[in-house]
């Protein structure tokens, strides 16, 4: 499982850099300041949680495989898809209703961090 999380986290990190550059150069002229800020928030949270996913993969090397670590990694992956994905879609489409699902991704992020803490605490 550690290879999966390090690989997926790395790919999300790559996409975060690519999407950030796309937003800064290609979208700057076509989005309002608010929509560009929403887009950049998606990029920032994607990168932070890409690093978190990599951390989960590396933690499994030190802590061993556990259900809590699996939940941590998958929760962060789901969080990126829902949180960042909804902000990208909102920014590019202007459909404000998409913002209503963003908090679901935020809850997934929170769950991921709590699961990582629980996995570390159990091994301490």
Automatic annotation (TrEMBL):
Topological type in the membrane: Multi-pass membrane protein
PANTHER family attached to this UniProt entry: TRANSMEMBRANE PROTEIN 256
Domain of life where this protein originates: Bacteria
Full protein name: DUF423 domain-containing protein
Organism of derivation: Paenibacillus filicis
Family to which this protein belongs: Belongs to the UPF0382 family.
Transmembrane annotation, as ranges: 44-64, 71-91, 97-121
Keywords assigned by UniProt, alphabetized: Membrane, Transmembrane, Transmembrane helix
Location in or out of the cell: Membrane
Pfam families (alphabetical): DUF423
């Amino acid at each position: 499982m550690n290879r999966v999380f390090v690989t997926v986290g790395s790919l999300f990190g790559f996409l975060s850099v690519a999407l950030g550059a796309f937003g800064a150069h290609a979208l700057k002229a076509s989005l309002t300041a608010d929509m560009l800020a929403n887009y950049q928030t998606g990029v920032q949270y994607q990168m932070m949680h890409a690093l978190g996913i990599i951390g989960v993969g590396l933690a499994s090397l030190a802590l061993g495989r556990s259900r809590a670590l699996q939940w941590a990694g998958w929760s962060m992956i789901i969080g990126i898809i829902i949180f960042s994905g909804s902000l990208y879609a909102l920014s590019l489409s202007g459909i404000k209703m998409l913002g209503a699902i963003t908090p679901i991704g935020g809850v997934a992020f929170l769950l991921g961090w709590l699961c990582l803490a629980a996995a570390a605490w159990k091994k301490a």
